[in-house]
Design a protein that fits this description.
Keywords: Hydrolase
Distance between the termini: 64 Å
Shape: globular
CATH architecture of the largest domain: 3-Layer(aba) Sandwich
Domain Beta-lactamase-related: 25-335
Oligomer: single chain
Number of helices: 11
Structural class: alpha+beta
CATH superfamily of the largest domain: DD-peptidase/beta-lactamase superfamily
Pfam families: Beta-lactamase, DUF7586
CATH class of the largest domain: Alpha Beta
Largest sheet: 8 strands, antiparallel, barrel
Domain DUF7586: 354-437
Number of domains: 2
Strand order of the largest sheet: 12-13-14-15-16-17-18-19
Protein name: Serine hydrolase
Radius of gyration: 26 Å
Order of helices and strands: HEEEHHHHHEEHEHHEEEEEHHEEEEEEEE
Length: 460
């Protein structure tokens, strides 16, 4: 049986390296690094290089572009969890004078605030931040181009605002807050705003010839929270483990689940891609992946994690265009999951069984539709349709004897067991729906009552 973080099989490792080699060759990347995480730890890394800078490794720094946004989002969620702000707060309440109106912090995190994608010319990714010394220079005269909350429109300037929000609340530079509150606790000592050896050089590859040109690596100033960071495959593997499991020194598992939940509508025609709070959510190879892609002139990057399977992958390259790290990283995850599927946890009986809860289990009917109700760990319940598609959810027990829906149609709704005067279980009340032991049970409190004639043959 495969134990946690056991080394990958040789055939799997060869398949991973082959995928990286094909991507580097066909994508004409000066170099490409890939790495895989399983159950929280890096279990493989490999690279290919076609330039004389030496073979890169898992400790070689690359610029990660918009992957930086996820780090900024973690900082904002920390402020929320400390009670220093609410995601529903308008940004103006914490950072006045920006001109973004009533756009909320949650909308900025999910790119639904209606802000422009880029700052005014010249293009911020190839010019120093000194060109934009104030937020007004970042936003321009007309920062909003869509009504807030109406659509997903990716905005680099929105994350510049979030970085400035962090600085305003913490009263320290964004870079300093990031280092002390995220990078150091996670042991990400090779992630920084400026490169440190060994690091890759950024290159542009000529589209019609095998020639290269150096790309500038500028300090982005106020735009840094949108794309400044440099990191390594090893460090990003640590970050991938954190995004899947959480870490109480940085951000709890509940807040990470919130970040991984879709907060933005998919663009028309792209139903396999949406956005959470600082995290992209995609469907690739039949799997749901969360993470982020990134690029800056000279560099491309991607981190994808399949939380359910406990597998993540990181891909870093040093070319302005060519290799598609989002595709390659998804393929690396798929190779591992397909070749070495995760063993399920062994079934174990409950340590303690509550007879009152056991009474709730079994078949229930909403109208004529059959449902099963199962008792799970920590006094939780799971409701699911017994035939065909339908409305189901998991429920967490509350101290008052009710349950709160965790997902699905009944997320956030309250489930209660309704008993009669003699203590007999009559029905379940779920957000005004009455679930009875028999279809339309006359004694089950069915809204609108039950016809006194009961079940009968239709008139001929």
């Amino acid at each position: 049986m495969t134990s946690p973080r056991e080394a990958l099989l040789p055939g799997t490792e060869r398949a991973l390296l082959h995928r990286v080699a094909v991507a580097q060759s066909e994508g004409r990347a000066p170099s490409l690094v890939g790495a895989v995480v399983r159950d929280g730890g890096m279990v493989w890394s490999g690279s290919r290089s076609g330039i004389g800078e030496g073979a890169p490794g898992a400790d070689t720094q690359y610029r990660i572009g918009s992957l930086t946004k996820t780090f900024t989002a973690v900082l904002v969620m920390r402020l929320r969890d400390e009670g220093l702000l609410d995601l529903g707060d308008p940004l103006e309440g914490h950072l006045p004078g920006t001109g973004v109106g009533e756009a909320t912090i949650a909308q900025l995190l999910s790119h639904t605030a209606g802000l422009a994608a880029e700052s005014p010319a010249p293009w911020w990714e190839r010019t120093p931040g000194s060109v934009r010394p104030e937020l007004a220079d970042v936003l321009g005269e007309h920062p909003r181009i869509h009504p807030a909350g109406r659509r997903h429109h990716y905005s680099n300037t929105g994350y510049a605002l979030l970085g400035s929000l962090v600085e305003a609340v913490r009263r320290r530079p964004w870079e300093e807050v990031l280092r002390s509150e995220v990078l150091e606790p996670l042991g990400m000592g090779r992630t920084s705003c400026h490169p440190g050896a060994p690091h890759a050089s950024g290159w542009a590859v000529h589209p019609w010839a095998d020639a290269v040109m150096h790309e500038p690596a500028v300090d982005l100033g106020l735009m840094a929270p949108a794309g400044q960071l440099w990191s390594t495959a090893a460090d990003l593997c640590r970050f991938a483990g954190f995004l899947a499991e959480g870490g109480e020194r940085v951000l709890g598992a509940g807040s990470l689940r919130e970040m991984r939940t879709s907060s933005a509508p998919a663009e028309p025609g792209d139903w396999d891609s949406t956005y959470g709070l600082g995290l992209q959510i995609v469907r690739r190879n039949g799997q749901t992946l969360v993470g982020h892609a990134g690029s800056l002139p000279g560099f491309v990057a991607c981190l994808w994690a399949d939380v359910q399977e406990g597998v993540a992958a990181v891909v870093l390259g040093n070319a302005t265009s060519g290799p598609l790290p989002a595709v390659v990283a998804a393929d690396l995850v798929h190779i591992v999951v397909d070749a070495e599927p995760r063993f399920p946890e062994p079934w174990r009986p409950m340590q303690e069984v509550d007879g009152g809860l056991l009474e709730l289990t079994g078949a229930w009917y909403w109208g004529t539709s059959p449902f099963g109700l199962k008792l799970v760990a920590d006094r939780g319940l799971e409701l699911y349709p017994l035939s065909g598609p339908g409305r189901g959810s998991r429920f967490r027990a509350r101290p008052d004897g009710s349950w709160r829906g965790l997902d699905g149609y009944f997320a956030g709704e309250t489930l209660r067991a309704v008993h009669g005067p003699e203590g007999r279980l009559i029905h379940l009340d779920l957000g005004s729906f009455a679930f009875t032991r028999e279809p339309y049970d006359p004694a089950g409190g069915v809204p609108g009552g039950v016809d006194a004639r009961g079940w009968c043959a239709p008139p001929s």
